[in-house]
C-alpha cells in the first residue's frame, strides 16, 4: 500500500462521470471536503472486485457514519466494453449484489483507447483499486489489488482523526466548535 | 439435498442448448452415458453462483478424471435477459473467471415467459442448482442453493462406484472387463 | 492423498488405546466391520488439527449415518507430553471444542521414545492424519495434513457403496437382504 | 464494541502478572505511555481465542510499528485451571502457534474464586477480550468476543493519530518536535 504523508499528498483530480447510480444527484469531490473519502474503482466482471473490493466497500459504508466517511464506487471499464459499458448491465449488477453506496460510471475517453477518463487522471493500474482522500481532498492511499481490513481501517481512523482545517471555529447546525488547538483529547 | 434412490430416479430430459462454449462440439446427455454427470445451472449475475456454485464446479472439474465425472455448466438466464443473454457477455464472464468446463446457454422459451427451456424441463427452482446424473442418465441429486462439498463428494463417490450396466463384459479399447457380479472388491 | 486399491490395501492394525472418551465402552476396529471408518489422529496443541482436521471430523460425524460411517478420534501425543498426556487436559479440550465422537488416547510406548503405539503401527507421519478403512477393515486412505472435503467425501461415498461381503444374504433386524450379485442398482 | 470518548475514559489498572513470556523483562503499562496498547485477553483452550482473537493479535503485531502500537497478550485462566495454569502448558501452546508478542500470565486470586486479578480489575466478561489503551493509558475500547478488523483498525488509527501530550516539544533521540498546536497536517 502506498500511503502518502500529508505534505507529499497531491489533490485528487475531479471525477469525470458519465452517469451516477444510487444517488439523487451527481457527486463532486469538492462537495465532500471535510469528510474522508473512500473511492473504490471496480469492474463488474473483475473477480477480485466481486470477491474482495466491493464487499469491503459495502462494509465501510455500513460501518462508518456518513458524516465521517463517504464511500463511492467508480465503474472504470477498460475491457469487455460492449458487455459492461451499457448502464443497464451495471444496474442489474448493483441490484443483484445489493450495493447501496453511490456509484459513478467513469466517462469513456472520446479519443478512444479504452481506458476511461477518471481512471487515467487518477493513474489507476487496474481494478480493484482503493483511493483514500483526506478531509482536504488529497490522495493519501493509492492501492491496486486486495487491501487488508486492519491496515485500511487504521488509515481511515487516522484520516478521520485529523483536524479539518476548513471547519471554522464557531457555531453551525452541528453545534459550536472550539479552535483545533484547543481540542487535544 | 434431495437424493433419489436408483429405483425412484427419473431420467434427465435432454439438454436444450442454444450455443455451447468451451467445447468443440455440442454435448448430449446421451453421449455421456457410463459417466457420472454434474450439471451446474447458473447465471453470471447471481452472487451465490459466483461465490459458491461455480468455484465448486471448477474444483470438481479439476479433481475428478473426465472418464468418471463430466462437469457441465448451464447458463439458465431467467432475469436481466438483456444483460446476460448476449453470448458475448457470457464469453467475457467465462474468460475473466477462467472457467474451463463446457458451458451451454439454455434455449429461451419461444413462447416468452423468461424461463428457458432446459430450466423448465428440469424443474429448477433457481440458481445455483446442482443436478447429479448417474451412469444411466437418471437424476440422483436435484439441489437448489449452496451445496456442501463433503455431502456432494460422497454422493459423487457413490455414483462413480455403482456398476455401469451398459459396460458390456468383454474387451474394448479400455481393456477386458469382467461381468459385474465378479468384480466385488 | 494416498488412496489404495482394494487389492493392495493392508488390514489396519488394532487400536492400542489407553483410555476412551465420549463412548460408554472401548471400541475395537473388529467391531466396526461392515461400516466405513474415519480415523482422525490429532494432538490438542496442533494448529492444523484444531483449524482443519477436527472440524472436518465433526462434520463427518454429523453428516453421515452412524450405520454407514464410524468417526473416531485418536489422540496421538508425540510432543509436549507433559501438557497433553494428562487425561484431564484432553477432557477440557473436548469439552471446550464440543467434540461429540469417540476419542481414544493412544497408548504411550513403554520403551519410551515419545511416539505412541498406534501411531507407530499405523506408520503416521504426524498430525493431523486421516485414515479411512473400508468395510473389511482395510486401509484405503492414509493421509497426512489437510485433506480436501470434496476428495475425501468422494472416497467415503465410494467405500460406502462397496458391497459388504460379510453381510450374509438373509434376514436380520435390519430386514432381509438379497445376495450382492442381485443388488446392482 | 464499547468505545469511550477521551473525556469519559478511565485509566487502565496496572497489570498483575505472575510470569511473562516472549519478553526479556516484565512490562508495565506505565512504561508504554506514549504508545497505543492492544491488550488481548485469552485462554489457550478457548475456541474463539484460537480462531479469531489470537490471529488478530498476531496480525496487529506484524502490521503496526512497535513504536506506535504495543501488542500484549494476557492469559486470563478462569476455567480448567489444572490444565491451563501450568506455565509449561502455555509455553507449549505459544510454541506451536508461533506467537511472537509478549504474553503475561494473569495472577491467580490468592483468596480463590478462579478469576485472576487483572481480569477482575479490568472487569472482563470472558475471553477473547480486546482492550485498547490510548497514549495516556486510558481505556478507549473494552470489547468481549470477536471484533471486526475494519472497526478495530479504524480505532487504532485514530488513537495513533491523537497527539501525545507527554511528548514534550524539543529534541530527544527521535528528533526535534514541534508543539502539537503547530503540527496540524
From TrEMBL, chains A, B, C, D:
<dbReference type="InterPro" id="IPR000866">
    <property type="entry name" value="AhpC/TSA"/>
</dbReference>
<feature type="domain" description="Thioredoxin">
    <location>
        <begin position="6"/>
        <end position="161"/>
    </location>
</feature>
<dbReference type="InterPro" id="IPR050553">
    <property type="entry name" value="Thioredoxin_ResA/DsbE_sf"/>
</dbReference>
<dbReference type="Pfam" id="PF00578">
    <property type="entry name" value="AhpC-TSA"/>
</dbReference>
<feature type="region of interest" description="Disordered">
    <location>
        <begin position="164"/>
        <end position="185"/>
    </location>
</feature>
<dbReference type="InterPro" id="IPR036249">
    <property type="entry name" value="Thioredoxin-like_sf"/>
</dbReference>
<dbReference type="InterPro" id="IPR013766">
    <property type="entry name" value="Thioredoxin_domain"/>
</dbReference>
<protein>
    <recommendedName>
        <fullName>Thioredoxin domain-containing protein</fullName>
    </recommendedName>
</protein>
